[in-house]
Amino acid sequence: MSDEDCGLRERKKRETRLALHRAALDLVEESGFDAVTTDQIAARAGVSSRTLFNYFPNKESAVLGATPADPDEMRALLDARPASEPILRSLRAIVETRLSPTTYDPQLRAQRRRVILSESSLGPALVGNNIRVENILTELVAERLGLDPAESVRPRVTVASALAAVRACIEHQHTGGRGTVEETVDEAFALLEHGFA
Fold first, then answer.
1. What is the DSSP string of 66-102?
2. Which keywords does the record carry (predicted)?
3. What is the rounded distance in angstroms from the CA atom of residue 96 to the CA atom of residue 57?
């Protein structure tokens, strides 16, 4: 398969994932989370239910736009970074790669936030996804730094700080803050790297 074919296939996968996420958000806004089924989400996106489950493990994930945290994918992303690179820079690149389209599309981001805030049943799924990502990244960062995560808090604090910085930047945007998400993430990681003097 050529690079062009691979690129086309990846773009098609991103478009399908985004269509499913948008369909899920629209349906939940229209009818409420409990009334929406995975079959309805798939039908609204123009795909089969089986296709939906190729992208999202359940209805909650489709609404959140969250794909399961894949340890192999995150390991590959970290391994692709130079070994000598400061760990926060590596994390910045990984986090940016994993940011969903909802982060960069202001309308979709606002819709996702409305849905999450109005549907309390989504809270546990969101928290669970965040914990899984944090735990995987903590193990990988500990390996990269040559530290035992049971003995040193540094890997977990590093990862938690990086993820919290991204969440803070997204919330900054939601509340009318200046700049783009990309700009504020750059600023936040500079603060993490150089300290809060």
1. PPPP-HHHHHHHHHTS-TTS-HHHHHHHHHHHH--HH
2. DNA-binding, Transcription, Transcription regulation
3. 23
CB 109 within 8 A of CB 47: no
Collapsing DSSP to helix, strand or coil, 46 comes out as coil
Cα separation of 102 and 146, whole Å?
34
pTM beyond 0.90: the answer is: no
Are 20 and 47 within 8 A, CB to CB? yes
Determine whether domain 1-57 maps to CATH 3.90.190.20: no
Q: What are the per-10-residue average pLDDT scores of the chain (197 residues)? A: 69 90 96 96 96 93 81 86 92 76 70 89 86 91 93 95 89 83 87 83
